[in-house]
Amino acid sequence: AEDGYDLWLRYRPLRTEQAAVFQHHASQLVIGSATPTQTVTRQELLRGLGGLLSQTPTLSDTVTRDGAILVGTPTSSPLIQHLQLDTQGLGNEGYLIRSVVVEGHPVTVIVGNSDVGALHGAFQFLRLVQTGQPIDHLDLHDAPRLKLRVLDHWDYLNGQVERGYAGASIWDWWKLPDWRDPRYTDYARANASIGINGTVVNNVNAGAEILTSRYLQKVAALADVFRPYGIRVYISARFSAPIEIGGLKTADPLDPQVQRWWRAKADEIYKLIPDFGGFLVKANSEGQPGPQDYGRTHADGANTLADAVAPHGGVVMWRTFVYSPTNEDRAKQAYDEFKPLDGHFRANVLLQTKNGPVDFQPREPFSPLFGAMPKTPMMMELEITKEYLGFATHLVYLGPLFEEVLSSDTMTHGKGSTVARVIDGSLDGHTLTGMAGVANIGTDRNWSGSDFNQANWYVFGRLAWNPTLSSRAIAEEWVRMTFTNNEAFVKPVVDMMMGSREAAVDYMTPLGLHHLMGPGHHYGPAPWDASEARADWRPVYYHRADRDGIGFDRTRTGSDAVDQYAPPVAAPFNDVKQTPEQLLLWFHHVPWNYRMRSGQTLWYELVAHYTQGVDDVKKMRETWRQMDGYIDPERYQQVAAFLAIQEKEAQWWRDACIAYFQSISGLPLPPGFAPPQ
Ligand code: GCW
């Protein structure tokens, strides 16, 4: 039975005619096994081609047949060296795949400068076969645009996953380091297949225990499993660890004892894990300890940890997710605190900033920190787990959300200064670059809580590799690999995925509304909820609806958050007429009877968006109904059942929000409005 465990690495037999064609180009496999990475590459190709083509290529030391596949590096394979290929642009992790002639035979070569590069090429080759692309005249080369492509696990050592909707943590700390669950290998395969090269194994909110020697042994065992796949481990470091596990009285980053403690800790880690990636830190954020507790800055804090890992080549990913109820506008605080520190961080520090200025909402403008700190490497944090987007059951493909922020233009160096160019380092000349995704992975058989949530893990990895890829093209790849190449399935399902994010925006938070979710759990509507003690945790703080209108005034007459953007971006955001309507209520407090571009009042248009969201989910259900029979019944049924939940809850969102906002506006519903059934 299908349970989704294989993810997109689902090497089921292709159609016979298609397999027959591919078999001619997969007659023989010439690949070394001198290193662990070569061995896993060989295993993957045998498994993948054997499954897809129902015929396993024979292993050979040299090319003796037409249609051989030759895999390796110029240093590992004399045959490859002999080809004199230009591998300069491939870096350490890139690859090329080419149709060439070796010893008189037509052959496909898959080449990297390193074993890991060749592994990435092998996965790309399998992807071509799996998605039914021609492979007879190949001339491909590709290399990652970002250096660090990292999953952030919000996993606690007790197995709980914060904002996890797919079961418990996959790390079995109790049995580690002695028992290495085979699932860790499958996790590494899945990540390597999309180019992810790092994993932060514990939550940014977790305690310091993971830094004790007992736990470091366990982390080292994971690192051993991941290493052949080109994946490094990182640890979320609690800032007060020197006190909690080090027995010191302070964690002041400028205290020499504290600095010595972090250096010794780093030395200890690197002895166990020579390729340890470094630390991720959440400091002075949501009650976590940090340098400000000692009157120091984020730079002081980050630099102390950075100095500890620098001799070993490690990095520090320091988060900028800070806000407090004393700030007039939560959206402004990260910029206020961090921008003045530009130029004060060590060279091995990256600032890790969420895509938007508030918190992973269905839609936000890009964070104004992107482009604002040219002297500092800026990495982006995206949330793959759908904390604010319906958890596991709602079908929401996040590709368009990710693509929207990456393609946003910061205008910091004129037109074309996209967020993608900030984070790939090309805009301000950085080579230390990265992207992090908060993982949606747990012990569920299907890893991600639903089959379609796997697509969000997939699209994150692909965009971290190349942030200019199209989310539609990625969705199509994923559908073909995960379900089927049948065109009658692929096109409608990709269309459904592509529209799903806007549907969620419409039934949850249209027109720039945000954070209307129930406080705490963030599931379902609660725009009225005032139960939280902190003002900035209450939905009313964000929508500001009153008798006269609705929306957060972030213009120059309001919080002036607009002026954190470059002037050519700030000007339109400051002007209600020029602000894109999809962000209207993010930046403006607008009268209920404001005329929208459609000619309708804001109030009517708001109602129309909520209704549109519900209608879109109905259409998604209809699309899926027509897909019955194209795939296995197990996955078909679960998606169908989840879509039914989504429709019910889209309706809940619409009815609750309209009823609440109507109670504030006092306005009648539009003529012909269909009340809740
Ligand atoms: O929005 C909040 C989440 C928290 C999370 C925090 C963060 C890890 O609700 O669960 O904590 O963001 O990103 O630090």
Can you describe this structure in just a few lines?
The protein has 677 residues and is an alpha/beta fold.
Which helices and strands occur, and which strands form pairs?
Elements: H1 16-23, E1 28-31, H2 36-53, E2 58-59, E3 68-72, H3 78-83, E4 95-102, E5 105-111, H4 115-130, E6 139-142, E7 148-152, H5 182-193, E8 198-200, H6 213-226, E9 232-236, H7 241-244, H8 256-272, E10 278-281, H9 298-309, E11 315-319, H10 333-338, E12 349-354, E13 378-383, H11 399-406, H12 419-423, E14 434-438, H13 454-465, H14 471-482, H15 487-508, H16 539-543, E15 549-550, H17 567-574, H18 584-587, E16 590-591, H19 602-625, H20 633-665
Parallel strand pairs: 1-2, 1-3, 3-5, 7-8, 7-14, 8-9, 9-10, 10-11, 11-12, 12-13, 13-14
Antiparallel strand pairs: 4-5, 4-6, 15-16
The chain binds 4-O-methyl-beta-D-glucopyranuronic acid.
4-O-methyl-beta-D-glucopyranuronic acid binds next to loops.
